[in-house]
Amino acid sequence: MLSPFRKLFFLGLFFSLLLSQVFQAQAQKGNHTIAFYNVENLFDTEDDPDIDDAEYLPTSELKWDEGRLQIKFDRIARVVDSLGDADGPEIIGFAEIENRQVVEMLLNQDRLKSKKYQLVHFDSPDARGIDVGIAYKSGVYKVNFARPLPVSLPDEPNFNTRDILLAQFSYGKTIFYVLANHWSSRRGGEEASRPKRQASAEVARYTVDTILARDPQAKIMLIGDFNDEPFDSPVKYLVNGKEGSPTLTNAMEPLKQNNVGSLYYQKKPNLIDQIIFSAAFSNSKSKFAVVSGSAAVYNPMWLQETDERFAGQPFRTFAGKKYLGGYSDHFPVYIHIKP
To answer: Is 140 exposed, middle or buried (0-12, 13-18, 19+ CB in 10 A)?
Structure first.
């Protein structure tokens, strides 16, 4: 039997640990999280005659039915719920979503419903119908305006890809911009497909420069799946712009130098999901500033492959035509903002 002294000691230790956890939670809660997640083909089960969605139907080889869709919802909702901190992200960009309806179904899952996410979304001209979208906590932020930014190639009139999504947000008196990106893939080879990503880089950079010309102190954040890594030329163009342009900060460069990946290709980590921001977000004395060093790839063990042959890689929904029932072939990325 414990002596009164030892009882008091253990009681004090218990309350110290409890208070420590409370203070840690409050410290985390004090920061906002901005995140991005390529969710690997989040399609509904209905046939849309306006797009090529035949691969993701109950009658397809993938057998994409309501049961598999619900598993996907459960998986992605778990990620969003825990991403960044215990309260989930205040803003999260999505890639590879079929339409507004399927994302709203996701945001209405039990894990996410109480967060009161609203969605910014426009249909893109992508042949498969996959879009980008931005979900945000409506109790925290207000959307002032949003618009799609089309990407084209003058020499390829039939070229269609995802629009870049621009949204202006308010947080109290603070105004900031978010651009969600999903640049063209490397299908056909990195070099041959590079002009497509360069076209997206030029649209995004032109938009950034236009905003900064009006307000040099504008807070601008670009999130997305760029299908290029931090040191590839289209991303470097986005960061550096033309000669004399204000330089942006790519928060993922240090992670790339440490061989961190958000996606694996031929078992090698690739950091193609990135977060880039303007100088005003770096000002630690300013309200609503990036927390230095907070950018991260979210890759807890439960998001990783259980097969030892693919250790460390994302636990995906499909491997080719084989159904695995996982989350996505990408890990999400995020950064913290000190409001």
So the answer is: middle
